[in-house]
Amino acid sequence: MKRIIIFYLCVSALVLIAGCRTDRKDPLSMTQKVFGVLPDGRQVFQYTLQNSSGAIVRIINYGAVVTELRVPDRNGTIEDVVLGYDSLQKYIDDTGHFGAIVGRYGNRIGKGRFELDGVQYQLATNNGENHLHGGPRGFDKVLWDAQLVEKAAGPSLELQYVSPDGEEGYPGTVTLKVAYTLTEENELRIDYEGTTDKPTLLNPTHHSYFNLSGSFTETILDHLLIIEADSMTPVDSGLIPTGEIASVEDTPMDFRSPAVIGARINDASEQLEFGKGYDHNFVLRGSAGSVRKAAELYDPSSGRLMTVFTDQAGLQFYSGNFLNGTAEGKGGISYGHRTGLCLEAQAFPDSPNKPHFPSVTLRPGQVYRQTTIYKFSTR
Q1: Total-model pTM
Q2: Catalytic: which of 97, 206, 207, 223?
Q3: In the CATH hierarchy, which top-level class contains the domain 30-378?
Q4: Is the pLDDT of residue 310 over 50?
Q5: Which end of the chain has fewer beta carbons closer than 10 Å to its terminal beta carbon, N or C?
Q6: Which sequence spans correspond to the domains of the chain?
């Protein structure tokens, strides 16, 4: 009799739990599998998030890399819109930061030097004489802790990396948490939270190369772009900001209304010559710290529209100028010149050496936060 009572209690509990779970997503909307093994024997996992409309994002915990992002076109055809690789080894060897979270400092710091609280620091240099995207072993070259979490907004992957004091020359032990969430509105939402035990710099960003056509043999030159910015930060020949904040009016940098990316990319312009195309920081309208629209990217052939929202002060537009066909990507496709572009939310490049630029200093007791959203729709 005792066993029968226990049995019925267990059945009742299972029925109650099932009833409470009726509003949850299908468990298959969040899965994981082994993606590869690092040289030191640690496994790297690939995590898949899927929403009810069929949009899919796949992320690996090496570099917190978005390896795939599948969204529908105007006819409902779901295709991948980010460049990347099929194997872990190619991400290990990659120098283009495909799909990764980069840091501690996204973008460049001139000569890899900065001063903080009267102390001079020398960072690793990996872009000529300059420091780029956290150095040769930045956040894109490390293994993150990861766990799948079901949130009200949709399936989510939470990642964490602890960067030790002195890594790539940066002071302080920094703990950075990044959450990728795929919402029911076809948004890829990225939330960052960082802390430190010593004064340091922190300015991470996301580095996917987008091509909304769904075909990585096509360039992005026919895409239309809007950037919500009236000014930008001109650079020198090493792509380090001069410190000036210049109006975009009457220049190839004016994306305040929809402009075809390829229309002016070869114009006679010192800035375009320095960048070999677009590789520039735009000063976003509105208040940093408040999430607002930063950009729109539209592909007329597929009808896909990507709207970027962020709380950051700047947005780096990079038109894939250094893609040259040597990177063999997914499906054996070689990524040719300008077959992908990046829209990277950030503080400004070289901010530590430009006091009038947004501060990137993080101190003990403070919490770094960032939210950036890539929202996909059709037109």
Answers
A1: 0.92
A2: 207
A3: mainly beta
A4: yes
A5: N
A6: 30-378
